[in-house]
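Contributing: when you submit paired examples, paste them exactly as shown. First protein:
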Amino acid sequence: MSDIIKNYEKYAEYTKKKNWKAICELNNIKIDSFGTKKELKVLADFLEEEEIVFALTSGIMKQTETSNAFDWGVNTWLVVLTSERFLFLDSAMLTKSVDTQSIRHDRVQAVSASQGWVLGKIQVDLGARTVVIDNCRKATVSVIADLANKWLRTLQNSNANQSNSSGDTTNNSQLDELEKLANLHSIGALTDDEFSAAKAKILNSM
């Protein structure tokens, strides 16, 4: 059982209490609030209903078209790994506006981390492009990458199991239909041609 599943209820509890420090401690790292104290204060306002925070850190991302107009160059963002997505928050320096961006997990191919002497980097591979969060606290990057990849595998396995379950249900239903047809044919309610045509139709759909 992965750590993210084992601690799922605790992550949910701490998210509900907005206890970001406890979430970091659950991951055996210290909370990284460098340049993101304003973002941490409003993080809960940007979470969806039932969304759970697994990990967070601060990092540098280049400006985008939606970056705060009063900031220049690179911005320090709060980087949040949740049960639904990667969430990025950036509060403007001179106003109360908050820039928010997110990447849904179904778009993510993989997450990697690299560490330097002091700082680290997180790379979110989207296939067509890679989102890079630089200048993160060294200890946080491997934790976030590890948790993200474990959660992605959990989601993929869950989706695969649901697909298999759906397929099994469909096959069972079709087998029931074949049995009914055979019974109708045996009592003479269906002619040979009618039975063969109906059976072929069901078999072709399986």
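Second protein:
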Amino acid sequence: MDPMIEVLAWLAIVVGVGSAAYVAIDVWLRGNRLQMPIMEVVWPVTALYLGPLAVLWYGRWRVRRGEEHPNRSMPVATALAVSHCGAGCTIGDILGSWLVFLTGLTIAGLALWPELGIDFLFAFGLGIVFQYLTIAPMRGLSPRDGLVAALKADTLSLIAFEVGLFAWMIATQLVLFPEHLHPDEATFWFMMQIGMALGFLTAYPVNWWLVRNGTKERM
């Protein structure tokens, strides 16, 4: 492993964790609670991979409890919708990656293939939960109707996010680092941060369409 890449990886991780901690402290310790409780999780998780950019967005776009929801522009509303989907994916991918690593699961001698499958299952499940906790209260839906609405709103978005992330993971493990990276290495998580950012980009046009046609709530 190139020592410079390792140093850069640790720097990216420290910046990401520091950014997430800044947002979490502002919400939970400084008492700046948000009007949508699920966003109190979404913002710190988004900062894990977008770092200072997420902190900047948080400062500009957060809505505290008691404040009136502003009428966001379409680009901003779409970015918020992607961040919501991306948070579920991020947590799911972190859990899935560690599970595969700790259990030693492989297919054809590679941990990459079970990791992709388990990551997707975790990400999809958590992503739908995140969307349910947004859409059901906003629309006053029953649990069943809320689940159906969440599936309609976020299924395509989650798939689009994972397409960007998984394409990068495959390229990382098979081309850039053929010796294969593992979750106990800083470079693995640095590559994951880049993959999450790419997932954000691939999910953006899908979320634009979903928000535009009313399938997904305008955040």
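If you have annotations for the second protein, write them as plain sentences, like these:
The chain is about 75% helix and 0% strand.
The chain has one domain: 3-65+73-212.
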